[in-house]
Specification:
Strand content: 15-25%
InterPro entries: DsrEFH-like, Sulphur_relay_DsrE/F-like, Sulphur_relay_TusD/DsrE
Number of domains: 1
Largest sheet: 5 strands, parallel
Order of helices and strands: EHEHEHHEHE
CATH superfamily: DsrEFH-like
Protein name: Sulfurtransferase complex subunit TusD
Shape: globular
Keywords: Cytoplasm, Transferase
Family: Belongs to the DsrE/TusD family.
Pfam family, one: DsrE
Strand order of the largest sheet: 4-3-2-1-5
Radius of gyration: 14 Å
Helix content: 25-40%
CATH class: Alpha Beta
Distance between the termini: 22 Å
Length: about 130
């Protein structure tokens, strides 16, 4: 079966592209393909901000990605550099930097670009949204 890496650079403020990405990932898995990572980079890291309130008129994309990861066991990896620049940090980083709060919650995980490229090397294909 082909192994695919998915790169998310679209912002949650572009909900149509984001829903397309989720639907595409579900479709791949249902067809028997393997997704070895979903990597959030650039504006895509906003999907991992657990403190955003989607409100009643917007889609809760972080929650949808979390449900997807729980259902399919696909790792949701977030570029630590891109996330930090946008104020998205995990509990460990908050503790290291003396911040009182963090905004990145499981199943999202902060990793460096090296992790992305290592997993990409093991994939047959890269798809970007």
């Amino acid at each position: 079966m082909p192994s695919i890496s998915v790169l998310i650079t679209c912002s949650p403020e572009s909900p149509a592209r984001c829903i397309n990405a989720l639907d595409y990932c579900k479709s791949l898995l249902e067809q028997g393909s393997t997704i070895n990572q979903i990597f959030f980079y650039q504006a895509g890291v906003y999907h991992a901000n657990g403190l955003v309130d989607a409100g009643s008129t917007n889609l809760d994309l972080p929650a949808r990605w979390s449900v997807f990861a729980a259902n399919f066991g696909v790792p949701l990896l977030v570029c630590v550099g891109a996330a930090t620049q946008r104020g998205i940090i995990d509990a460990a980083q908050a503790g290291q930097t003396g911040k009182a709060h963090h905004s990145l919650f499981a199943p999202f995980e902060q990793v460096g670009l090296g992790e992305f490229f290592t997993r990409l090397h093991d994939a047959n294909k890269l798809v970007q949204f």
